[in-house]
Amino acid sequence: MVPAANAPAATSAMSLVIVEAKTPATVRPFNREICWHVSASRVSLTILKIEAKEEFWPLKHPFRISRGSRTEAHVIAISVTEAEQTGRGEGAPIARYSQSAATVLAQIESVRTVCGLNRDELQQLLPPGAARNALDCALWDLEAKRSGKSVWELAGIPTVDQMETSFTISLDTPERMANAATAAVQLPILKLKLGGDDADRARVGAVHAAAPKARLLIDANESWSPEHYRKTVPSLAELGVELIEQPFSVSDDEVLETLDHPIPVCADESCHTTADLPRLKNRYEVINVKLDKTGGLTEALQLCERAHNDNFKILIGCMVCTSLSIAPARLLAGYADWLDLDGPLLLSRDRDHGLLYQNGRIGMPASRLWG
Question: N or C terminus: which one in the chain shows less Cβ crowding within 10 Å?
Fold first, then answer.
């Protein structure tokens, strides 16, 4: 739907275009597009155009964690255009933090008339989350295209090619998780979603038997109790599990100060930005850095630097998403002790020019994708 030619403009500096997609999601996976055209006369002699669209990307298989399941990736894709250059970014609204497509689009709209919008100012205008992530990464991409340099060069970070990434096996019965591990037996690292029930040990044991050479990480997504931790962790250590991610809810994770840690424990839901690090020091050995939590690459770079200085190990993670979300996170590989950047592997299909995965390793993004 496009406003009629004689429709009143919202302001002299802005027009709103709403396009209802007619093609099926399997061809163009979004159902609405919102475009803001903002006068950039006080920024440059060109026009800054911000486009945001909601997209749905079907998954190969249902993806289950302790809080629920999904059959599609739900993301907001953004492009920011100045003159002939366009930067792109993607954010995944996280229901755990009361985010939805509507709230993310509203946050993007709230900064649409900001003159001279830049990454530093964006940190103050929007809270950490999917909206700021998508905009921040699009601004990085735009800056790279303007300058003729890669984002790696702009950020002063060396490239690290062909890094191992984990592949996630979603929560299910031990038998079905073992079958999924068999199908992924050639991959070097498997991350298992667990549910906080009596079957957790059997799940890990079944996967270990099906893929005995794989390194194992586990993610409880806040589903464990202290009793379950005490009962389960010794057997996981015997199976060689390398990492336990977010066993307890954010409100209850102080109990980690009283428990033994034969396996390093990683903060996911408990760690969003650098502001969280002080309270994590005596509870976790590892933090999970996700751009949808930090609110973009700018804060993620600061978080990695500060965490490294505070002697945390680092896992670089992702939501269920396309390669457009993974590309900026891939820049952080040099900080990582573990990579968990498998979002596109869960999709029925990825974006054009998507990241290349081979034998559990992830390559560098093509410039046509991002950066």
Answer: N
Can you spell out the DSSP letters for 118-151? -HHHHHHHS-SSHHHHHHHHHHHHHHHHHHTS-H
Q: Residues 112-138: pLDDT tens digits? A: 888 888 999 999 999 999 999 999 999
- Superfamily (CATH H level) for 14-149: Enolase-like, N-terminal domain (3.30.390.10)
- Asked if residue 106 lies in contact with residue 133, where contact means CB atoms within 8 angstroms, the answer is no
Pairing of the two strands 48-65 and 68-82: antiparallel
List the one residue out of 303, 296, 287 whose CA is nearest residue 338: 287
Rg (CA), the chain: 21
CA angle (46, 50, 54) in 5-degree steps: 160
Q: How many residues does the chain have?
A: 371
Between CA 192 and CA 118 the distance in angstroms is 39
Does residue 16 have a pLDDT over 70?
A: no
End-to-end CA distance of the chain: 32
Domain extents in the chain: 14-149, 155-362
Cite the active site residues. Answer: 193, 290
Neighbours of 259 (CB within 10 A): 15
Q: Is 64 helix (H, G, I), strand (E, B) or coil?
A: strand
Query: Is residue 97 within 8 Å of residue 295, measured between CB atoms?
Result: no
The DSSP code sequence of 156-207 is T-----SEE--EEE-S--HHHHHHHHHHTTT-SEEEEE--SSTTHHHHHHHH
Number of H helices, E strands in the chain: 11, 16
Q: What is the pLDDT of residues 245-304, one digit of tens each?
A: 999 999 999 999 999 999 999 999 999 999 999 999 999 999 999 999 999 999 999 999
Domain 155-362 homologous superfamily, CATH: Enolase-like C-terminal domain (3.20.20.120)
